[in-house]
């Protein structure tokens, strides 16, 4: 009988963590370095201690549970699993949390079963994966992988005017360790798919072989405030209308190109009054594509659109880059391990591209990395309706267990 994780403990912890950050209106929000995030971190730290693992926190608040076990004497690099426990606004309870708690569950199961992996095992919870409060997303794992200096990370100013460093200190998670203090032998992230592909295919395991590129920008359009009633249409410099033209352009651009997607998730007008032509429109642009060339073409098309709208509407435009990550190809060897592990458990599986960004795309800069997906009911995520049936959650965690055992006992 193959070793299996403790399903009751995993599902129970997911539900318990999922209760944190619930507002009176029932919306779940645990933005990075917020009080709600602290509550989640404190709960995770307690479970890490309960599992008998060593807790480590680095300077950008990344949290780690470390099990050295019999490998303490070896100087072999550890196998790392993990994800994130910060959320978007009005979030589901599985995004990120599933990968962290299943990773912890895998280590606890191996530890309790008397296994003695040749390598230490580490579960990570990276800071600010979502990037909703502080841009870019995947900030903690980016810093851990050396793609962002600690100073720049801590100085990041949030949408609320706070700085990440001050907030981490305030919630007690400005750790002492330098990001990158561990060089993993390999990194495997278990995550819900957050899209419709697996649910439509009826496939319980996804072997994620690549992850699409991401381009985030903030666009500010400045026009001229004027009276909504007295200003003829031909004399307007309407920042709101200019923004609407760009937003519509982006949707049509993405709809015309294969796997491309474009999203304007934030939009604000000034002075934001019913009878005043907007003087300013500020909005965010999220462009993604698995192909770097197509992503660059979308970025160039946006530049051209902004120039045309500025000229025709008599407005000025400014853009600010918030994040830019090229597509990532994961380690084929680990992807193969995922497929074999699923097959040996009699689980159907398929290769996938990740539409969402994940910490694994940053960890792939440091070591061989790959991801395992489980289905999202109805393809819904970043939404409180986000759900994955417990049998799928348990199956994914057991496949992670098998892949970790294989990696942890590989000397090379
Ligand atoms: O934006 C993303 O894809 C991730 O959820 N941070
Ligand atoms: Mn996530
Ligand atoms: Mn997310």
What features would you highlight for this structure?
about 400 residues; alpha+beta; Aminopeptidase; Alpha-Beta Plaits; nine-stranded mixed β-sheet; five-stranded antiparallel β-sheet; 12 helices; binds (2S)-amino(hydroxy)ethanoic acid; binds manganese (II) ion
Structure description:
The protein is of the alpha+beta class and 412 residues long. The longest helix is centred in the last third of the chain and has 22 residues, at 292-313. Helix 1 packs antiparallel against helix 3 and helix 8 packs antiparallel against helix 9 (292-313). The chain starts with 6 loop residues before the first helix and ends with a helix. The protein folds into 2 domains: 7-212 and 327-408, Aminopeptidase, CATH 3.40.630.10; 213-325, 2-Layer Sandwich (Alpha-Beta Plaits), CATH 3.30.70.360. The strands form 3 sheets. Strands 1, 2, 3, 4, 5, 6, 14, 15 and 16 form a 9-stranded mixed beta sheet that branches. The protein has helices at 7-18, 35-50, 97-112, 139-144, 150-154, 164-170, 197-201, 239-255, 292-313, 332-344, 359-363, 390-408, and strands at residues 54-57, 63-67, 79-83, 121-125, 186-192, 205-211, 213-222, 226-227, 261-263, 267-270, 276-277, 280-289, 316-325, 328-329, 349-354, 369-374. Bound molecules: (2S)-amino(hydroxy)ethanoic acid (HGY) and manganese (II) ion (2 copies).
């Amino acid at each position: 009988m193959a070793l299996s994780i403790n399903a009751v403990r995993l599902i129970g912890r997911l539900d318990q963590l999922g209760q944190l950050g619930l507002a009176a209106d029932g919306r779940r929000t645990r933005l990075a370095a917020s009080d709600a995030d602290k509550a989640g971190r404190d709960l995770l730290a307690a479970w890490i201690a309960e599992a008998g693992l060593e807790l480590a926190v680095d300077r950008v608040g990344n949290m780690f549970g470390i099990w050295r076990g019999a490998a303490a004497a070896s100087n072999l690099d550890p196998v790392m699993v993990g994800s994130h426990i910060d959320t978007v606004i009005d979030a589901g309870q599985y995004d990120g949390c599933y990968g962290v708690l299943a990773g912890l569950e895998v280590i606890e199961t191996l530890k309790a079963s008397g296994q003695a992996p040749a390598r230490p095992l580490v579960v990570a919870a990276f800071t600010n994966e979502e990037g909703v409060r502080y841009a870019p997303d995947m900030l903690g794992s980016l810093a851990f992988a050396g793609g962002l200096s600690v100073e720049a990370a801590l100085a990041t100013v949030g949408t609320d005017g706070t700085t990440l460093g001050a907030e981490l200190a305030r919630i007690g998670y400005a750790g002492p360790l330098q990001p990158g203090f561990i060089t993993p032998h390999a990194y495997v992230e278990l995550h819900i798919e957050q899209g419709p592909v697996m649910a439509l295919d009826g496939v319980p395991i996804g072997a994620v072989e690549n992850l699409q590129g991401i381009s985030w920008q903030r666009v500010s359009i400045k026009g001229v405030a004027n009276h909504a009633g007295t200003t003829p249409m031909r004399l307007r410099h309407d920042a709101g209308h200019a923004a609407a033209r760009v937003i519509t352009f982006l949707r049509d651009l993405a709809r015309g190109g294969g796997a491309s997607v474009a999203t304007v998730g934030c939009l604000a007008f000034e002075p934001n009054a019913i009878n005043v032509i907007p003087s300013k429109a500020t909005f965010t642009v999220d462009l993604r594509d698995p192909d770097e060339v197509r992503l660059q073409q979308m970025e160039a098309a946006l530049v051209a659109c902004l120039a045309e709208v500025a000229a025709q509407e008599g407005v000025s435009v400014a853009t600010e880059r918030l994040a830019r990550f090229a597509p990532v190809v994961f380690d084929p060897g680990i992807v193969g391990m995922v497929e074999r592990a699923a097959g040996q458990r009699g689980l159907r599986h398929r290769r996938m591209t990740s539409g969402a960004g994940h910490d694994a795309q940053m960890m792939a800069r440091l070591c061989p990395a790959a991801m395992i997906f489980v289905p999202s009911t109805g393809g819904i995520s970043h939404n409180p309706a986000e759900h994955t049936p417990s049998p799928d959650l348990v199956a994914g965690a057991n496949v992670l267990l098998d892949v970790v055992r294989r990696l942890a006992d590989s000397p090379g």
